[in-house]
Amino acid sequence: MTELVETEYRDLKPWALPGGLLYGPFPTRRKGRALGVNLLPAGEKVCTFNCVYCQCGWTRSSPLKSDGWKALCPSLDAVGRGLEEGFAGLLADGNGPDAIVVSGNGEPTLYPEFEAAVERVRAARDRWFPGVRTMVLTAGTELGREDVRRGCDRLDERCVKLDAGDARTLKRIDLPLVPFVLDDLVANCRRLRDVTIQSFFTRGVVDNTGEPAVVAWLDRLAEIRPIEVQVYSLDRVPPAKGLRKVPREDLEALAERAGRRLGIPTHVY
Ligand code: SF4
C-alpha cells in the first residue's frame, strides 16, 4: 500500500501558493491558457473547506478561526490597479490568456468586497482581453449571501464544487470548517444564473466512488440541474496521505452516468 501511494504521488505535480494577485497563464486541459486571479492574501490559504486533495495544502486560516487574514487581502484599489497593470503587461508580452479564473489561495468569495472585485475583473477584461471568458471556482459555502451570488452571476461561468451527494462522504473529503448543509448548497446553486458542477473523485483512505455515494451524488446533481458536470481525480500532490487516483475509464463511466441522467454535457479532465 505504501509503495502504491508513493508511486502515485510521485506522478503528481506540485503546486506553490500564488504569491500575488495574478498567476499564470498556465496550461489547463479544458480552458487553454488560464490566468488565475487570487483575491486572498499572498502565500496564505484561506478557505471554508479543508479538502483532503487540495493542491494548496491544508487550510490554516478559516473564517471561523480568526479575521486576521482579511487585513492581508489586497485592497479593492490594489486589485483594480493590479488587474489593469498585469493585463496590460501580459498583452504587451503577447502572453494573453484564453480564460480568466477567479480562484487562488482558497475560497475566492471570502474576499470582503467580492462583488466589487468581480466588477474590476470584468472592466480589466473588457479593456485588455475582450471576449476572453471569466469564471469563478467556488466551494459554494458563501452562496447564501445575495452579494456573493450577484458577483458570481456577473462572471461568464460559475463552477461550484460537489464532491459528494451525502453529508457523511462530503465531510470525509472536504472537511468543512464552517457549518455546511447540502440542501442549502443545492438551493443556492439553483438561485444562480446557471452553474457548472465540478466533482473530485478519489479512492484509498477516502473513497467516494462506491455505489451508494455515486447514487447520492447523482441525486444531488439532478436537484441542482447544472448546465455541465466536470469530474476529475488527483492531479497535484495532496496534503492527505493514502489517496489513490481514480482511473480515467472509471471517471468516464461516472461522467457518462451523470450525462445520461441529466441530459447535459459532462467532461472528464
Ligand atoms: S475548496 Fe478548493 S481551495 Fe478550499 S480546501 Fe477545497 S480544494 Fe482547497
How would you describe what is shown here?
This protein has 8 helices and 10 strands. The chain has 269 residues and is of the alpha/beta class. The protein has one domain (2-268): TIM Barrel. An 8-stranded mixed sheet has the order 1-2-3-4-5-6-8-10. The longest helix is centred in the N-terminal third of the chain and has 17 residues, at 76-92. The model is unreliable at 1-6 (pLDDT under 50). Bound molecules: iron/sulfur cluster. Iron/sulfur cluster is lined by residues 47, 49-51, 54, 56, 59, 106-107, 139, 161.
Compute the CA-based radius of gyration: 18 Å
Query: Could you state the order of secondary-structure elements as H and E?
Result: HEEHEHEHEHHEEHEEHE
Ligands bound to this protein structure: iron/sulfur cluster
Tally of helical segments = 8
CATH structural architecture: Alpha-Beta Barrel
Chain-wise SSE layout:
Blueprint lengths: L1 H9 L11 E7 L3 E6 L38 H17 L6 E4 L11 H15 L4 E6 L7 H8 L3 E5 L5 H8 L7 H9 L5 E5 L1 E3 L6 H14 L3 E5 L10 E3 L2 H15 L3 E3 L1
Parallel strand pairs: 2-3, 3-4, 4-5, 5-6, 6-8, 8-10
Antiparallel strand pairs: 1-2, 7-9
Helix pairs in contact: 2-3, 3-4, 7-8
Bound molecules: iron/sulfur cluster.
The site of iron/sulfur cluster (SF4) has 11 residues, from loops.
